[in-house]
Write a structure and sequence with these properties.
The chain has 489 residues and is α/β, with parallel strands linked by helices. The protein folds into 2 domains: 210 residues, ATPase, nucleotide binding domain (Nucleotidyltransferase, domain 5, 2-Layer Sandwich), CATH 3.30.420; 275 residues, ATPase, nucleotide binding domain (Nucleotidyltransferase, domain 5). Helix content is 40%, strand content 18%. It is built from 18 helices and 21 strands. A 7-stranded mixed sheet has the order 14-15-13-12-19-20-21. A 3-stranded mixed sheet has the order 1-10-9. α16 links the parallel β19 and β20. It catalyses: D-xylulose + ATP = D-xylulose 5-phosphate + ADP + H(+). One of its GO terms (molecular function) is ATP binding. One of its GO terms (biological process) is D-xylose metabolic process.
Length: 489
């Protein structure tokens, strides 16, 4: 399916009259955590592709596993625990690889294939991620896995940027040879294969820059490049990602090498309860109207008179809590200190307080966990994306709680745009013969390009942001107790 999709994209471009000969470099965005298993002997197939035939007609017998495990695979809990136990526990694995073991990560999926399909595993010559698989097609040889996407496998030492021997051994025998070498995301994987030069008239000198995962490419597409940059994607699920110099890997969230720099890291936090949870509260408390919802949010005071809520319509990832709603009233809370503050669990809030408790609760969780992961606070700036980033009332709460300016972008394609930027970045690094900052590509040109973002809300009052910091700490105390009592791990 991946191969046929590439055929279709290139055919559509060709029919549109696109001039492939003008392409100096290309890269791409691959669905993170998906993997492809090349059968022994497939390297020779890659190197001898016939430009008169579609790719899909030539690669049907190139794979030892016919279907790619992807991020929706939830069947590897047993393998996750085995890998964690082998390296000294979940926290040790997180410190080593940037994340505890997750079912969707490639390492546990490889282990399951080794255990359940040993013949297919032994017949595998190379294991690619979707990103390195697509790059392999373009260069006609096995491409390296890049550091950033590679860190979504539970197999790489994120500090040394090499495969971890203990993680490899905990996963499957002979794995180091099967995953090949690692490379920086801005490295050149190779020149375009003759197949594409002949079939589509690419310039034979066109560079193929390492592909990477969709989340790292989104970071590049949103022009996050320095410590203190933070993006919040407010969608069906909410995602927070940014750049930190000294991240602190934990049992939740992820740390990945920075895809557009030689130093620093990308921190990523994922929340299942995003827009659908906001819609639930809108429907039950605000007459199914965003206008009423926003009016409630505007008319209630910041800090919500000490009313805190935890709202989970789905099992949450961060924190690992089951479906449920938990409401608390903090008595004697003024925002000046936590002395004499008592919490009382309550069954309900009035509708305006419910709306603010939801929004403040989601944003306070984001701030708290980003801070715990080593993100600078306040951030240098926040770029808000996703459907709810069009809601100015919510963005005002973002600015107040984080204490920084909030910008928005009006484009849905940050991953593919980021891949194009990274292609240009890799081309520039190659031309210079050494790494150069990606910001050199768009310095002083952001306002005139598709990369522009606009200031939506100025930084909130810093005194209020400090009061939110106290409310956040109290919230984290309650969250910790909820996890101890109800946590799913």
């Amino acid at each position: 399916m991946w191969v046929e999709a590439l055929d279709l994209v290139l055919q559509k471009l060709s029919k549109s009259g696109f001039d492939f000969g003008k392409v100096a470099a290309l890269s791409g965005s691959g669905q993170q955590h998906g993997s492809v298993y090349w059968k022994k002997g497939s390297s020779a197939i890659l190197q001898s592709l016939d430009s008169n035939k579609p790719l899909v007609d030539q690669l049907g017998n190139a794979f030892s596993i016919k279907e790619s495990p992807i991020w929706m695979d939830n069947s590897t809990t047993k393998q996750c625990r085995e890998i964690e136990n082998a390296v000294g526990g979940a926290l040790e694995l997180s410190k080593l690889t940037g994340s505890r073991a997750y079912e969707r990560f490639t390492g546990s999926q490889i282990r399951k294939i080794f255990q359940t399909q040993p013949e297919a595993y032994n017949d595998t010559e190379r294991i690619s991620l979707v990103s390195s698989f697509m790059a392999s097609l373009f260069i006609g040889a096995y491409a390296c896995i890049d550091h950033t996407d590679g860190s979504g496998m539970n197999l790489m030492d994120i500090k040394l940027k090499v495969w971890s021997e203990i993680a490899l051994e905990a996963t499957a025998p002979g794995l180091k040879e099967k995953v090949g070498k690692l490379a920086s995301a801005y490295d050149v994987a190779g020149h375009i294969a003759p197949y594409f030069a002949e079939r589509y008239k690419f310039n034979k000198n066109c560079l193929v820059v390492q592909w990477s995962g969709d989340n790292p490419n989104s970071l590049a597409g949103l022009t996050l490049s320095v410590p203190g940059d933070l993006a919040i994607s407010l969608g069906t699920s909410d995602t927070v990602f940014g750049i930190a110099t000294d991240p602190q890997p934990r049992l939740e969230g992820h740390v990945l090498p920075n895809p557009v720099d030689t130093e620093g890291y990308m921190v990523m936090l994922c929340y299942k309860n995003g827009s659908l949870t906001r819609e639930d509260i809108r429907n039950s408390c605000a007459e199914k109207s965003w206008e009423v919802f926003n009016n409630f949010l505007e008319q209630t005071p910041p800090l919500n008179d000490g009313k805190l809520g935890f709202y989970y319509r789905d099992h949450e990832i961060l924190p690992p809590l089951p479906v449920g709603v938990h409401r608390y009233k903090l008595q004697n809370f003024t925002g000046d200190n936590r002395e004499g503050v008592n919490e009382q669990e309550v069954q309900e809030f009035d509708p305006p307080s419910e709306v603010r408790a939801l929004i403040e609760g989601q944003l306070l969780s984001m701030r708290a966990h980003a801070e715990r992961f080593g993100m600078p606070m306040p951030p240098k700036r926040i770029i808000a994306t996703g459907g709810a980033s069009a809601n100015h009332s919510i963005l005002k709460s973002v600015a107040s709680i984080f204490g920084c300016d909030v910008y928005t972008v009006q484009r849905p394609d940050s991953a593919s745009l980021g891949a194009a930027l990274r292609a240009a970045h890799g081309w520039l690094c190659n031309k210079k013969g050494s790494f150069v900052p990606i910001a050199c590509l768009y310095k002083d040109m952001l306002e005139k390009s598709a990369l522009s973002c606009k200031l939506s809300v100025s930084a909130g009052n810093q005194e209020l942001a400090s009061k939110y910091a106290l409310l956040m700490k109290k919230r984290m105390e309650i969250e910790s107790r909820l996890v101890q009592k109800l946590g799913r791990f």
